[in-house]
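Q: Got a minute? One more chain.
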Amino acid sequence: MDALLSGIDLLARLDVLMALLIGSIGGVIIGAIPGVGPAVAIAILLPATFALDPLVGLVMLLGIYGSSMFGGALPAILINTPGTAVNALTTYDGHPMTQRGEAVRALGLAYGASFVSGILSILALILLSPLLARVAPMFGSREIFLAALLGIVLVILAHRGQTFAAGMMAAFGIFLGTIGLEPVKYTQRYTFGQDWLASGVDLIVVILGLFALSQAFLLLNDPEEAPTTQRVEGSMLRAIGEVFRFKRIAAIGSGFGVLMGMIPGVGEFTAQFLSYTYAQKTSKDPDLFGKGSPEGLVASESANNAVPAAAMIPLLALGIPGEALTAMMLSVFYVHNVTPGPGLFQTQLDFVYALYIAMILLNVIVVVFMLFASNWLLRIIRIPTRFLGMMILTLSFVGVYSLRNSVTDCAIAAGFGVFGLVLKRLNLPIVPIILGMVLGGIMEVKLRSAMARVKTPLDFVDRPIAALLAVAIVLLVGLHIVNVLRQFLARRVQREE
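A: Always. Here it is, folded:
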């Protein structure tokens, strides 16, 4: 109880509340602008948060992360253009409802489903994080190494049809993390005598290049667009309340979102697919799905908005990020010497409670804002894409330069921006690079520490959790190889026929 009161006291500060308000409303606005998304916004803001109090910085980033999907539903429903990538499935049923003259109902259902799933996933975070933190002290160096390796394997396997490319990108990320001085004997690696590489390739520089600058280049290269929109008329509050007619779908979708959010590398798309498929199979009107089904809309929005809070569970309890945005947040923890994991629950429980309460307030702020601001946000949607690209470009370079006042960092970020643009044009995954850099660093440190106590390969898996993680890795890789062989043989049989 004392920790809860201390958490409320931490959150009651004016700077923290302002950061929560700015992050929540800013996330909605960013989500509503097609082509930007939370990753770009967080990447741009990341350097600025390093100068802030850790709670202020994290609350702002959490606000953007948790609220962007609310905003992303607006253009997805009204103009058939998802504001964020994970709102793509929302267009299936949201836009047909708009074409039938039910725009307010569609928006209300999307906001209501997002709010319900957001609250349910935060409750899961509150319940599951301490439980995982109690198990976490059983994780030694080898268990954390294997958990990080399992995370990379899951990230790679989550990119179905692109596992080889995702594996190469993850390996490239691990390689980037090894450049510079190695952490034990401080010898230089892969610097080739270049002094500017001695300090390594900064994670934030890579994030800004791959996510923000690449998106800016993409917007500047694409044809100028400024979508046309129409005002939304009707009672938004009544439309939001209608979500409780579909409470079973919302609850199941939230469950899928929580489960998929906890598993590294899986995230919103898998959660949405499972939730949407379940809703369609159990619906009385399955033929309506994809043509304006309220159930399909609720299933989609409830699944994707449950993921952000759930993705914080492995981050807070184990210090292992599951996707790019939580990896960015991990860097804020590290800059302020706050180490996520079981120690955080033992020594800074009030800090954890403050994050919990902030996430609940975030959802309340966003729903209240969306009740009154949907028509105002339509003006944001109409921002010309090239103007938007120039803004992102400018802010990104300002952010990169502010890190270390280094023109070299700006050049490296520009290089990664071009590389990210190429990857986007070729539809190749970017996220594995960031997770490779973050998890690769964790793996190296823990492997070095574990090897001092390991004499034979079997010693590495002689403890229950280590053995369980190793078996999971082997099974996942083995099942994937079997699946690939089956597909290869099936294609071969088809060609012969």
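A: The first helix runs from residue 2 to 11.
Q: Perfect, thanks.
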